TrEMBL record, chain A:
UniProt entry tagged with the keyword Glycoprotein: no
Cell compartments where the protein resides: Cell membrane
Protein name from the UniProt record: Branched-chain amino acid ABC transporter permease
Database matches in Pfam families: BPD_transp_2
InterPro entries xref list: ABC_transp_permease, LivM-like
Keywords, in A-Z order: Cell membrane, Membrane, Transmembrane, Transmembrane helix
Lineage, highest ranks first: Bacteria, Pseudomonadati, Pseudomonadota, Alphaproteobacteria, Rhodobacterales
Domain of life, per lineage: Bacteria
Membrane association type: Multi-pass membrane protein
From TrEMBL, chain B:
Membership in a protein family: Belongs to the leucine-binding protein family.
Signal sequence interval, chain numbering: 1-21
SUPFAM superfamilies per the UniProt record, alphabetical: Periplasmic binding protein-like I (SSF53822)
Domain Leucine-binding protein: 28-387
Pfam families with a match to the protein in the record: Peripla_BP_6 (PF13458)
The protein, known as: ABC transporter substrate-binding protein
UniProt organism field: Sedimentitalea xiamensis
UniProt entry tagged with the keyword Signal: yes
The keyword Plastid is annotated on this UniProt entry: no
Keywords assigned by UniProt, alphabetized: Signal
């Protein structure tokens, strides 16, 4: 019913291997993109930007980054929070050192610096795997947070150890600071998310992505067929950290504006992003979006329903949030271990064959 | 373009404000998480005072009060969400009870024209009203607290603490790092040695810090702790048999729930404070009849008389007095955040006024001015008696080292002004 595929034939290889081979999907994708870029900026207000859309966009970038490493290359990482901190602090240092440069440049450079740090901490992955690698990345998480707390150079010797984003612009439009308009911050993050998703999607279906997936599925077999594990693993760490670094830079400069490393980029952040990837679906770009949306929107939705509509005490609602989110995670892992992306894939299959799915 | 959109946004906020004929006081509380032990009594006190005003006086100047509570969990991301979701309701003043959230909100609230009151926390240099137009931290700030600790040590050592060792056990965050600069200056001035011992969030793990204290044998230990960190520290101090009377916490490390778990071992623990303790005030009778007996007490209603409950009452009282002042200045009961700011800047708390409110000698008397948003910074010391389970003042409210603190505040606020291109606002 929803999908009418009659006459929708692919007559060339590029057509057949495009991201949305079904015409209906493709058009829907264009509509979503157009809505996000052309309609939302006119409707957005401070609440929607700062409480819902910015965190969603930024966490989606982080989830894409972690999905490349964990979902596509099979290297479990608990260092996401630490790498986000690298992006944030790199961005801060760049912003304060070169105030006249556009924010775009700062954020991309911050991603690049994080990629270098990511490669450095990816080196152990050449020798250790699985749980042991998870522990090694956990060490990275704690080390990086400790470093940013310990060395005053990183926070420009401020008394409190906090970093504050000064007002910076791009093409004359304020992007950071309290006077930045909601639509500008939203569009800025949206551009980064769209670009990240596009790059990630194309990387994962090219040579590089195939070598990552070969390593993920069985590293010895991959090595035998000629995949260089050094290049595959380190490139996965570099690309993943690049995206995570960008999300960390945006998280600090555009979304929060002031950050304290232990509180904002602690181990909780690593787990949060990991949950997003697991709930959304490992090895799926759409899953990164779905996971981020789920974990950002659900607490806000529960709060709106519990406190604003039902008038329950705030602490009860906060406790219920933990219970409900936790229960849903367990439920998801039992019912659909491949995440929301797989649920959507199944639903789509059924819709295509509707009314008689099998 | 930017200006136009800002004006539009501001216009929308202002248009939404006056439609409601009530005074909105958001309460960014935290009743969950590792800091809930401190967040609950403060929030209860804050809520109960406004409930009392509504029940007894019908609000402030005839306008009813609505408190909008929002749970932050002491988490900055949720704090931002709470700020954004409540500011559209015409919020008059923000008191987030978290230094991290305060740092976050200072630029935002200033841009939105909503005043903040960070009583005894937040950014200390906000005392300089020339730079921080919308942030107030009367009647005392962290650096007053640090200086108050040192002054108390001077007092009990007949004015000489040269060569003594003072250890600072602090929460490794913006909050805990605040006093370091002042203590360093004071250690230069008075010749004592300062040992810094950071404790990471949430603060349950302090064995190594206290082992270090046992090894270094400092004469005094002071603490900038919050939440579970406090009770763990008091217990650890008891474990290494550190003399409790030489252990002085800041005002966020000096409530009942911080010392009760250690039992008798906590006897003699001290904490600085900027307001009075206990429930020996006439206002508690009114609270009993109008709030508790009518079943309208916030939370479980079991926090009355606690140190932090008193602080919540005090915070609400100062906010209500500022709102009253704003109504007087502008001649309307229906005030906006901008009017509220004027009221806070003209606020004057006298002994007669406090007595009138049923809170005689509850805090210091002070007057706020455009230049000085921080009040006089008078600090007293309270001591815990484990036998009767009560706090009592052992040193009255005394002035702190204005010379050292003033210089530091000028330096820090000048740096902030330069970073953000702020012109001095007072004429």
């Amino acid at each position: 019913m929803l999908y009418r595929e009659a006459g929708d034939f692919n007559t060339s290889y590029p057509q057949d291997s495009q991201t949305f081979p079904i015409r209906f999907d493709r058009y829907r994708y264009y509509v979503v993109l157009a809505f996000a870029f052309l309609v939302v900026p006119f409707l957005i207000n401070d609440y929607w930007a700062n409480a819902i859309l910015l965190p969603f966009l930024i966490y989606a970038i982080a989830a894409i980054g972690l999905n490349i490493l964990t979902g596509y290359c099979g290297q479990v990482s608990l260092g996401t929070g630490g790498f986000m901190a690298v992006g944030a602090y790199a961005c801060y240092k760049l912003m304060t050192a070169m105030p006249e440069v556009s924010m775009f440049v700062h954020v991309i450079l911050a991603g690049g610096i994080t990629a270098l740090v990511g490669v450095l901490f990816g080196l152990p992955s050449l020798r250790i795997k699985g749980f042991y690698l998870a522990v090694a990345t956990l060490a990275a998480q704690f080390f990086l947070v400790w470093l940013f707390n310990r060395v005053p150079w990183f926070y420009n010797y401020s008394a409190s150890g906090q970093i504050n984003a000064p007002e910076r612009d791009t093409f004359g439009i304020l992007i950071t600071g309290p006077n930045a308009p909601a639509w500008a911050t939203y569009l800025f993050c949206l551009i980064f998310l769209a670009a990240s998703a596009l790059i990630a999607r194309n990387l994962t279906r090219g040579t590089m992505g195939r070598s990552w997936m070969a390593i993920r599925d069985m590293d010895i077999a991959a090595e035998i067929i000629g995949v260089n594990p050094l290049r595959a693993k380190l490139s996965a760490f570099a690309v993943s950290s690049f995206f995570v670094g960008i999300s960390g830079a945006l998280f600090f400069s555009v979304y929060l504006g002031a950050v304290e490393v232990g509180e904002a980029f602690g181990i909780n952040k690593s787990f949060l992003v990991l949950f997003m990837v697991i709930i959304g679906g490992l090895g799926s770009i759409f899953g990164s979006f779905a996971g981020a949306a789920f974990l950002v929107l659900l607490p806000v939705a529960l709060k709106v329903v519990g406190v604003d509509m039902m008038g329950w005490p705030t602490d009860i609602v906060a406790h219920f949030q933990l219970v409900i989110v936790g229960a849903l995670i367990v439920l998801f892992l039992i019912v659909e271990p491949h995440g929301l992306a797989q649920l959507w894939r199944l639903a789509k299959e059924k819709l295509r064959l509707w009314p008689f799915p099998h | 373009m930017k200006l136009k959109l800002t004006t539009l946004a501001l216009g929308a906020v202002l248009a939404a404000g006056p439609a409601l004929a009530e005074l909105v006081f958001p309460d960014l509380s935290y009743r969950t998480g590792p800091y809930a032990a401190g967040g609950i009594p403060f929030s209860d006190g804050y809520n109960d005072y406004f409930t009392l005003l509504n029940e007894r006086d019908g609000g402030i100047g005839g306008a009813p009060i609505r408190v909008v509570e929002c749970e932050t969990g002491y988490n900055t991301e949720k704090g931002v969400e709470c700020y954004e979701s409540t500011k559209g309701e015409g919020a008059l003043i923000y008191q987030p009870l978290s230094t991290g959230i305060t740092y976050q909100l200072i630029p935002k609230a200033t841009a939105d024209g909503i005043p903040m009151h960070t009583m005894g926390y937040g950014r200390t240099s906000a005392k300089n009203g020339e730079v921080f137009s919308h942030v107030f931290n009367y009647p005392a700030n962290y650096w007053d607290g640090a200086s108050g600790v040192v002054n108390y040590l001077l007092e009990i050592n007949d004015g000489d603490i040269k060569g003594k060792k003072l250890a600072l056990v602090y929460h490794n965050s913006a909050y805990g790092k605040e006093p370091i600069r002042t203590l360093e200056e004071l250690s230069k001035k008075h010749g004592f040695e300062l040992i810094l011992l950071p404790v990471d969030h949430p603060g349950q793990e302090q064995k190594s810090q206290w082992l270090q204290i046992r090894r270094d044998r400092p004469d005094y230990v002071t603490m900038w702790g919050w939440g579970v960190m406090n009770q763990v520290a008091v217990q650890e101090a008891a474990n290494i048999r550190f003399p409790m009377e030489n252990f002085i916490g800041v005002w966020w490390s000096g409530a009942e729930h911080d010392v009760l778990p250690a039992g008798d071992a906590a006897n003699g623990y001290k904490a600085v404070t900027f307001h009075n303790v206990g429930r020996d005030f006439p206002i508690y009778e009114d609270l009993q009849t109008h709030v508790v007996d009518t079943g309208k007490a916030a939370g479980a209603g079991d926090q009355l008389g606690n140190v932090l409950y008193n602080r919540g009452l005090y915070a609400a009282m100062l906010a209500a007095e500022a709102a009253k002042k704003a109504q007087e200045i502008h001649g309307t009961p229906d005030i906006t955040p901008a009017m509220m700011r004027d009221g806070m800047e003209a606020l004057e708390i006298t002994e007669e006024r406090m007595a009138e409110l049923g809170m005689p000698n509850f805090g210091p008397t002070f007057a706020v001015s455009c230049e000085n948003h921080g009040g006089p910074g008078l600090v007293g010391v309270a001591q815990w008696d484990a036998g009767s389970k009560t706090w009592s003042l052992v040193s009255d409210f005394k002035p702190t080292d204005g010379e050292v603190i003033g210089a530091l505040i000028a330096e820090d606020s000048a740096a902030y002004a330069a970073e953000n291109n702020i012109e001095p606002q007072c004429k």
